Amino acid sequence: MGSRPNRQSVLNYCISGDLEALKTCPGLQKFVHRSFSDGQTCLIAACRNGHVKVAEYLIDECGADVEQVGVVEFESEQVEGVPPLWCAAAAGHLPVVELLISRGADVNRTTITNSTALRAACFDGHEEVFEQYRIIKRTSPTDLLLFAQRSVVKLQSNTALHDCAESGNLQSLQLLLNHRAIMRKDEYGQSPIMSGANAAYKKVVEYLAALSESVPCQNSDLLAISVQEKIAAYELLGASLFDRHSLVQDAIASWFQALKLRQESSVGRCLCCRLMPEDHPLIRRLEQCGEEAFGSVREFTNEQQLLDLMRNAHALSLQPLLIRLRVLGPDHPDTIYFIRYRGAIYADADNFRQCLNLWRYALELQRIFLEPLCHVSQAAFVSFAELFQFVLTNNYGGLPAVDLDPMLIIDCLELAVDNIERGMEYSFYQWHRRHPWSYTTADKEAINLMRHVVLCLHFISMILDYYLPDLKPLPECRPLRPTVSTVSDLLRLPETASEQDATVVNGTTTGMVNVESVRTGADAQARSRMCRLVSPGLKERFIRQVSFRFLSFSGKSPLHVTFLLQVYRLVRLDPRVHHGHSLVHLTCSCETSTVGRFVICQFPNLAVLSLLLQLGADPNCADVHGQRPLGYMLAQRRLHPSTQAALLVTLVRGGAHLDATDRTGLHALDPVFRHVVAESRCRVLEHISLACQAARVARRVGFTTHNPELRARLPEHLLSFIELH
């Protein structure tokens, strides 16, 4: 008798096709209808891997549902809501497809993205699956015809014809057309012939271009392709052959074919239907940025200009970019991607200036046309950060220097902050609103938010390290201790916050004074005292209103002011990422150093941390595990004690509490961290006030946020202060 089966063992047997081991599992039926941790079912696992005997056993003997959906992975992408037939068709397992159809699987069943099994086979070119659908048509004539006429559309408006054209599967495309598939357009306004041209499949373009001239009259309305669209397809085909495969001569031949068709038909150039009018301010702005990227290079309009371009390699290499901007439009992902790709080629040839010009233009396209937190933007920022660091490192390493305009880095920072602001719904607490938090397959936007935040920290580090290395601390404002005679006066402190705050704006306050001339040590102590004692509401308004006055000082350069404003915007947004980590948590983490393929800037970074704290970042904020930046930093064993000591000093000067505890009661003064505190030479008694000691006593006797009576009687800022200790 077999041993009690483990859920994962059952799934492994289905994946490996071990039918004999699967049969020995008692109580197998209870696992058949369940989804495993990765979203798969037993039947989906067997169908995905082509194990027809296992699938037959699960269906006939265990009662597996042939329509139960799950999650499956193809080419490192997880597809949700897929039935077993879709998995088998996408993987090209014909025997499994035949089995499922014979057991009553619906051939027109769709995934959550409205994709059918036939469409999945179209994309991957599994012609044997098409043959099976021909057999279905003989027995059920309406199924395939209905499918072809609907030309089932995905969420991004791709049809099966688009997928056949994009994959170069001409035979599958012909099969669909023979069953009266309709030529629809995708969300970017591109028909299947344009999809084939964009993927550089010449045979698909030539077949579809010639098809509408030879089809019977009754089908001409379904397959009609205008002359203008044919011309655009040949232009785009040339651009794709040039960029994707470096087939320069084939690309030029396609462009000559487009010129020939235009000359014969006397039609104008195809313009992307989604482009704004040429006098639109955004288009004018793009044209201004395009002057730096393309210079005097213009798209060819006749054969003589094309012949002249053959003698100018630089101008010829820019033609595919200009063609895509006109034909696909500036918002198409491939338009932006190939601008960045061409820039990377220039960078490989040590022409960094042309690379940066093209990438700046791509940055403007992203700013205007792309959604926040999209993968294209995140990948572009990684490329920017890698190139910036490479150029800056070369300049400081004795290699040939390239002038890198710091405003380009600040532009990247500004756009990244814009994207974060527009995508704050994916911040930690807004996105899940539960504890603990874990990423799922639906959290791609939240992951991209985390990467945007990390990249912002790298951009800040570059500016501080290479352009503002001697950045002086911002002027400090310290609060004078108010006269408090009774506990009632202390409890009324938040009520007078707005009055004190108003006097700060008018510059007439006696409660806060500018101490720019005071020594750094006194400033640090004053700020530390303010962060510990002032109510959060007053402190927030103080930072918001006074910081902008600091930034407007005439002594600051425009670069300095612009940079600080963008950093200040990021601090004000306070985006929270994985595990609820804040900007301060990330700045103190060595894991922040790696983004993309390799390390860009080194973290923890004292300069970035100091600037964030000066601009109002909370040094005592807690993540989902209750860890504050100081405790989070001390818990990282990869950090050297000297690095931890320097971070400790910076955090304490910025207002962090040495005696702040996490959920386990651990704090920086615990004996396990004594060596770090000793190396920092931090004067502990100067940073622990009587209020801190009182808060610790109050918490021990039951003054916590879980006490409803105290929550009703004590101000929120006092409860938070007690909870901190």
Automatic annotation (TrEMBL):
Its keywords, alphabetically, are: ANK repeat, Repeat
Q: Name one GO cellular component term.
A: ubiquitin ligase complex
- GO BP terms, alphabetized: ubiquitin-dependent protein catabolic process
Annotated InterPro entries? Ankyrin_rpt, Ankyrin_rpt-contain_sf
Q: Which Gene3D superfamilies does this UniProt record tie to the protein?
A: Ankyrin repeat-containing domain
What is the name of the protein in this document? Fem-1 A
Residues in ANK repeats: 80-112
Q: Which organism is it from?
A: Fasciolopsis buskii
